[in-house]
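The authors assume throughout that readers already know how a fold can be written as discrete tokens. What matters is that the chain and its backbone geometry are given together, residue for residue. A single example would do more here than another paragraph of explanation. For illustration, here is how one protein appears when written out as sequence plus structure tokens.
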Amino acid sequence: MSAPDYLTDADVRARLSYVELIPAMERTLIDFSAGRVTQPVRTSIAIPESAGVLALMPAIYGDMMGVKLLTYNLDNAARGLPVYFTSLHLFRAATGEPLAVMDATAITEMRTAAVSAVAARRLARPDARVLAVLGTGVQARAHVAALRHVRDIEEVRVWGRTPAHADTCARDVGGAAMSADAAVRGADIIVTATGTSEPVLRGAWLSAGACVLTIGGYGRTRRELDDDAMRGAVIVDSRAAALEESGDVIQSRAPIAAEIGELLAGSASLPAAHHVVFKSNGLAVEDLAAATLVLRPAATASP
């Protein structure tokens, strides 16, 4: 048997687009909540030699199965290195035959933002125009790009702990840098994409009807939102994952109203609340669904 193909980050980026990825994530989230996916909560192992984590994310979905290997280390930012390194190993479900190994940097980046776009399309007001982004890294930029596919964003506000980084990010996304409270007050959609361990978003800043998309705060002891912010209607990608690895949910003891896949399928309804919070933990099945798009012949992928 020949060795499976290896796809580089450039290969993956050439074959992925938000136009196809966003609807693929919607279908996947519906299938996940409907029980059509085999997937445990990720296994995370603390690395004694550093402040990092080694995570394993396996899943079986349709005719494909695989595992994503991820290393995550916030201290890498000070070293001039990426915060995470990741690869995806894919197999044919029926036989276990290796299909491909790919750099999963772009998949992780884009599917995370695409899932947030799916959530925003369901949870944010149709007339949402003002986007606030707390964070200045890869996910901040990816979220602006993805959310522009589902809402007519007219204003982007950016906050970061380092003013120079906020200025650069704001320039890159066509927005303006400002303080966190100024960015959030009056915003329709708020993205928190930070590596913080303490809340950066205060519920007192949120307007009625605001949609909060939170993707940072990974781990039981880390959070991005304070208790007031978590008093909105809380929607998650996975109940099991949120209750195991989301510090925002665990520490606030906020009740989970529904999984986003349930709302999309119509098997659950969105409760009335001052605002809505979507907590995205990131699911292995999202990686598999994105990889399905990548494995098609390059000529069939959209630009």
Q: What stands out?
A: Residues 298-303 have pLDDT under 50 and may be disordered.
